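Homework help thread (please don't just give me the answer)

Our assignment gives two proteins as sequence + structure token strings and asks us to describe the second one. The first is just a warm-up. Here they are:
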Amino acid sequence: MQTPQQPYTDGPWIKLGKFIGLFFLLMVPQLVLFLPMNSKVSPAIYWPLFAGAYLVAYIIYLYYFRHYRKPGPQPLNKQAWLTIVFGFLAMKVATLVLYPLNQLVGHEAVTKNDQVIYQLMGNSNRNVVVMTVMMGVFFAPLAEELLFRGVLMNFFFKNRFWPGILISAVAFGLAHANNTWTGALTYIALGGILAFIYKKTNNLKITIIIHFLNNFPLLLLLFLG
């Protein structure tokens, strides 16, 4: 006879330590992107490292998400798809407002994070370009939503609405490369929109799809260009 699963009772400092470790785990596959720039490193080495690092991160993130998350159904019904449309448009409006602000106040044509992506997409090594597209369109949205919404908000703010949204947004914003506070504000706003939608719906599938739709057009244009 199976005994009921005991709830997790980690204290706040243990949870904080776990989250910091999970945060740095997200950086590992991104660092692998720089291996193809060394002509001495074979694709047989960096492609398995790249895919394997994300696979390990997904498994660990899913483990914590499933054990800590607030239970409830997560269907992709008509209401969910309407929320996806709303979230995607909200992120585009935020970008249209905050990018010009960053240009005016921060004197940046594009954010530091986008500059890094442009440089990677302009690399002469096709493997770097393909890995960047895969990371930006598929791997990063899933990993970042699992970490900053699924794990972070359920670790610390399962029953607290606005604090969870604020901390998730700030963590998401600071996780992206920034030179200016207005650049960071752009990603904080985008993270806040995703966090608000997750809190309202308790459906991580919705925020993953919105994140994917937000990243896909730009990376597709850069890849084709």
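The one we have to describe:
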Amino acid sequence: MNEYTYYLIEKKAPIAWVYLNRPDKKNAMNPPAWEEASAVFESLGNDPDIRAIIVAGKGAGFCAGIDLMSMVGEIPELMDPAQKGGVKWQLLQKIYSLQETITCIERCRKPVIAAVHGQCIGAGLDMITACDIRLGSKDAVFSLREAAVGFVADVGVLQRLPLIVGQGITRELAYTAKNMTADRAKQVLLLNEVFEDPAALMTGAEKMAMEIAGCSPLAVQASKEVLNHGIARSVDDGLKYVASMSTNIIPSDDLFEAVAAFTEKRKPRFTGK
């Protein structure tokens, strides 16, 4: 029996599949998505029968990003127009907690492969940058969407994505909120490989996971530790800085406008205030 609300776990030793399992909402990340991740990846990281993990999405795509409307109830500070120091302090702690949802994937002892089909937007892109390897199908679409809704991306993508694709591509995505195709994603090294369709993607991800599982688990896990050690300080410092920056610019007229536009199903009119 699955013990999680947002995630569906399937163990087929030596591989575990972690599915984002909210297909009716395009796997948009609601409160359980953020609350359950640490337990999921800690449990799998400590499971001696599991040597590799595949993260994939159920339904039409990988993840449509944060479920802003459901998260507003969990983080009322986002919409408080008269924030004082105490409110900012509470918001900062909540951002740290959200960051942990992504960091726990990077910290997981077992290698994690992201298998991406369809939309991989916002928080979905955050998530896959914390994975060790990223694979995609031709229909995969990537977008760092926060600039389109009045946020600075604050849970890890701005720290991890430059290590994968470089500063120029990261800044292009962060400043424009544009979509990137799977072929382009492979060209800039966001994806290791592109498959013809989602079925071929899942087969390819399983094949790679089995290749990993066939190697010495001690050597594989030690390699992940060494690789993480090489980037850990810069990522950790960056996460603390962006949490502070995000707290400083929230709330804003742009954020209120983004929420109103979403509700009214229209394009937002941002003023930079």
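TA reply:
I won't write it for you, but here's a hint about the kind of observation we're looking for: The longest strand covers residues 7-12.
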